[in-house]
Design brief:
The chain is α+β, with helices and mostly antiparallel strands. It is built from 4 helices and 5 strands; from the N terminus they run ααβββαββα. The chain has a 3-stranded antiparallel beta sheet with strand order 1-3-2.
């Protein structure tokens, strides 16, 4: 029989808890940064106040903007959202609107697209993956050091 197998198994059993803690901290930090950037780019203060993030599903009536991971099989999931009850018009500014006309035919304008969600998500996608990967590596090394 191999000597030290019990110690090795105990070391491997510690890895998932370390990884979960490290990845959770990395996701939390990254979501806070992305929400801060989105709020800075938001065209109206009401929209900026309504942008937030949560673990798992968004509150009822909110507009889901982006999510990372899934809740299947115990995985972490963070979701960035806009509280729809406070700023229901946020998609109008993100995507813009078609030209609008009154029933009389009079032109009443249009909202030009002023994206503030998806540019931040695209800009931070690689950074996010890198931080999660680094968190996993840190957790595995930390589990290896704790004997």
């Amino acid at each position: 029989m191999v000597t030290g197998a019990a110690r090795l198994r105990a070391q491997f059993d510690k890895v998932p808890t370390y990884v979960r803690d490290e990845v959770e901290a990395a996701i939390e930090k990254m979501c806070n940064e992305m929400v801060r950037e989105m709020r800075a780019l938001a065209p109206l203060p009401d929209i900026a106040k309504a942008i937030n993030w949560t673990w798992g599903d968004v509150p009822k009536g909110s507009l889901k903007i982006g999510s990372f991971g899934t809740r299947e099989f115990g995985r972490l999931s963070a979701t960035i959202y806009v509280a729809n009850s406070e700023a229901f018009y946020a998609p109008w500014f993100e995507f813009g609107t078609k030209p609008r006309f009154h029933k009389s035919g009079k032109y009443s304008g249009q909202i030009m697209a002023q994206p503030f969600f998806f540019p931040v998500l695209r800009a931070n996608r690689r950074l996010f993956r890198g931080r999660v990967r680094a968190a996993v590596n840190r957790a595995v090394k930390r589990a290896n050091q704790d004997r």
